[in-house]
Amino acid sequence: MTWKAEIDRGRCMASGMCAGIAPDLFVLDEEHARPLSEEVPREERVLDAADSCPALAITIRDGTTTVGPRP
Questions:
Q1: In this predicted structure, what is the pLDDT of residue 13?
Q2: Are 36 and 29 in contact (CB under 8 A)?
Q3: Residues 6+ apart with CB under 8 A from 39
Q4: pLDDT tens for each residue of 8-49
Q5: For residue 24, what are the CA distances in angstroms to 18, 21, 36, 42?
Q6: How far apart are CA 38 and CA 41, in angstroms?
Q7: DSSP bridge pairs for 59
Q8: Which of 16, 18, 44, 70 is a plausible cystine mate for 26, CB 3.0–4.6 Å?
Q9: Distance between CA 10 and CA 17 in Å, rounded?
Q10: Centroid of chain to Cα 20
Q11: CA angle 15–35–37, rounded 5-degree value
Q12: In this structure, are residues 58 and 69 in contact, taking their beta carbons and an 8 Å threshold?
């Protein structure tokens, strides 16, 4: 099973936190971060990447339920 990762490009400030935590799942392009694939594994580090984003630009969903960032 997988989750879906979305990055709000309007909020992303390209801090690189997500790519630092999960470099095989998130990368920085010229001005923003992006997931390498919309589907990401159900792993703690995916949630850590969403939690660590200073702009709260990463949303992780399990179907219609938002699982990250955590409150």
A1: 96
A2: no
A3: 2, 3, 4, 5
A4: 999 999 999 999 999 999 999 989 999 999 999 999 999 999
A5: 10, 9, 8, 14
A6: 10
A7: 6
A8: 18
A9: 17
A10: 11
A11: 170
A12: yes
